[in-house]
Amino acid sequence: MKPLQIRNQQLVLLDQRLLPTQVEYVTCKDWQAVAEAITDMVVRGAPAIGAAAAYGMAMAAASLKSAAPAQFAAGLAEAAAGLQAARPTAVNLAWAVERMLNVARLHQGRDVNDVAALLWQEAEQIAREDVAVNKKIGEYGAALIPAQARILTHCNAGALATVGYGTALGVIRSAAAQGKKISVYAGETRPYLQGARLTTWEMVQEQIPVTLIADNMAGFLMQQGKVDLIIVGADRIAANGDVANKIGTYTLAVLAQAHKIPFYVAAPVSTFDLCLQDGSHIPIEERSDRELTHFAGTRIAPEGIQCYNPAFDVTPAALITAIITERGIIEQPTETAVAAVVGE
Ligand code: MRU
Is the CB of 173 under 6 A from ligand 1? Predict the structure, then answer.
């Protein structure tokens, strides 16, 4: 279940738009194709788009090997801007591109061939680290999961949303691997259905019992006492612990508070944006009306209406029981608690 692979120095992406009914791959031959694949959601999930963008930068550098140093720098800057603009909310994208640019800056003045090789290594390092980081998040997070737990998750924060293993689903994987009796409720995650299509698919492959629910059923489930805890991923976390994640996350956090159910967020340090004081500054992507007016290619809403389709929402830190990172757990996140774990 690898969302991204390298073959002949080209990025091969598992086409997540088609899962679970078709398993097909899209090969990206240059950074422009990588940017397009991110915008079109061939690859999605904050850490996965970060790693894909890092390879996009490495591919841009490889194509500029015979360029003069100034041209090389200009070409990389162009790729960086194009990749960063591919999607606005997940900060992992900008983080990965910036990390690649830093390597180029650090080795400025060296033979461009050498710099291109170093950039390729850096992209590989970002990809490798992501899996290791997720396993660490899994380890920390599993300690929070009781011996028997019915866990509600939203969207897909699994292997498909990362380079491997996953964040929220990584915690679930780790807890299951420790022998805990886990069952998962996957919210379908309208309108793009990452929960119905991707999270359920991952859980089936892991043989972890999974029950699909429509998003609007979550409150009733909690009222019936069927949910022991909620765990989700994140796209960007502000300095005060406010979390941007897939639209519908905030609703679940409010419901969790009303029902006194723990609400956990699992995310790597690369998802924190300490430059933003709070979540109100996080840019929220708005997607096409078609995701609401059509279902599986068929129009389901009348012509002549208006649609509003924000892809993410912001959950205030006060509603979050803990944020699980690879450096440890931030309990009852506040600016001080975040800085203690994530600050430089
Ligand atoms: O629009 P998507 O599918 O890219 O949104 C993904 C999410 O919101 C995930 O929960 C988040 O990126 C964390 S993935 C480990």
Answer: no
Which ligand 1 atom sits closest to the C-alpha of 46?
Answer: 12
Please name the residues in contact with 82: beta carbons below 8 A apart, sequence gap of 6 or more.
Answer: 31, 32, 35
Say yes or no: CB of residue 208 within 6 Å of ligand 1.
no
- State the fold for domain 138-342: Rossmann fold (3.40.50)
Same fold, 4-135 and 138-342: no
Angle at 83 between CA 82 and CA 86, to 5 degrees: 90
Domain boundaries, the chain: 4-135, 138-342
Going from the Cα of 116 to the center of ligand 1, the distance in angstroms, rounded, reads 30
Q: How far is 49 from 34, CA to CA, in rounded Å?
A: 9
User: Tokens 């992406």 correspond to what residue?
Assistant: 13
Distances from the Cα of 23 to the Cα of 44, 95, 117, 127, 316, angstroms: 15, 29, 32, 22, 37
Identity of the residue numbered 183:
S
Ordered per-residue pLDDT tens for the chain, 344 residues: 799 999 999 999 999 999 999 999 999 999 999 999 999 999 999 999 999 999 999 999 999 999 999 999 999 999 999 999 999 999 999 999 999 999 999 999 999 999 999 999 999 999 999 999 999 999 999 999 999 999 999 999 999 999 999 999 999 999 999 999 999 999 999 999 999 999 999 999 999 999 999 999 999 999 999 999 999 999 999 999 999 999 999 999 999 999 999 999 999 999 999 999 999 999 999 999 999 999 989 999 999 999 999 999 999 999 999 999 999 999 999 999 999 999 97
Q: What is the CATH number of domain 4-135?
A: 1.20.120.420
pTM (2 d.p.)? 0.97
Query: Is 253 in contact with 260 (CB distance < 8 Å)?
Result: no
Which ligand 1 atom sits nearest the alpha carbon of residue 232? 10
Tell me which H or E stretch contains 330.
strand 328-331
